[in-house]
Amino acid sequence: MNGKIKKVAAIHDLSGFGRSSLTAIIPTLSTMGVQVCPLPTAILSNHTGGFESYSYIDLTDSMSEYIDVWKKINLDFECIYSGFLGSTKQIEIVSDFIDYFGNEDNLIVVDPVMGDNGELYSSFDTTIISEMKKLIAKADMITPNFTEAAFLLGMDNPPKTINDETARDWLLKLSDMGPKIVVITSVPNAEKEEYTNVLAYDRKNNIFWKVGCRYIPAFYPGTGDIFTSVVIGSLLQGDSLPVALDRATQFISQCIKASYGFNYPKREGVLLEKELGILNMPVLISGYEML
Ligand code: PXL
Questions:
Q1: Among 47, 193, 274, 279, which one is most buried in terms of CB atoms within 10 A?
Q2: Is the pTM of this model over 0.90?
């Protein structure tokens, strides 16, 4: 056995309460045997989705010095994973980070965190969309939710549902912007209202994938961060893309079911701590198919 542990540079905010961003990403990837090296973008008292207020310390000005030290001590990463970015300047910093630390062998993942349920998060205005488009051009894989995918494609108001043909069109158009792998989460199912889909396109193999999941009418902040973390952990463990998507979908459904059953306050996020252990259990692949 060799002691090599893979490292992920995780460029996200730290929100002290509500199980989103780094407080969800670190435990998830650590449980999957991956070392998380956080590059914090901001420190918040709690995430911005559903509380009366939040405190916000912007770390844009300290990020360059932090990164310079990482360069000096010669760090390298098997994956670079960015999420919530608080300013245009931060997007530029991440872009430079990818130019320096990205290479042929590592996986560059950009989760273009901007909004959900048809709306931008309260801390953003629409300039985030054009900046995010520049950043996704440098990614190997992007993981927008349905709302973010529509915004990246230039729509102001995401449609209610899309059929398979439109879905393939969206995936191709997003891949044309740069990323080799495009994953769209929370896509409403046009035929079966009680299901949502995760859809994906793998340009190298020219394959579209679809993983269905029973829709649970509950919105919990942080589920996108946990989803992308499981996909990354699974790919770094050597799984194929559809298996990684299947594992992540199953894990999120399990977390949501665990929380929903307790009528747990949504703004506190899903009951991650109760469920983390199942990430180390043998996987029963539940049902991916080609789109
Ligand atoms: O999970 C996405 C996210 C990340 N960071 C902050 C957020 C949110 C979603 O609300 O508010 C600060």
A1: 47
A2: yes
